Amino acid sequence: MNLDKKKAVVDSLHEKLAKSAIVISTDYKGLDVAAVTKLRAELTKVGVEFHVAKNTLLRRASEETDAALITDSFKGPTAIAISFDDPVAPAKILSKFVEENEKMQIKAAVMEGKTLDVNGLKALSELPSREVLLSQVLSAMNAVPTGMVRVLAEVPRQMVNVLSAIKDQKEAA
Question: Does the entry feature the keyword rRNA-binding, yes or no (predicted)?
Answer without folding.
Answer: yes
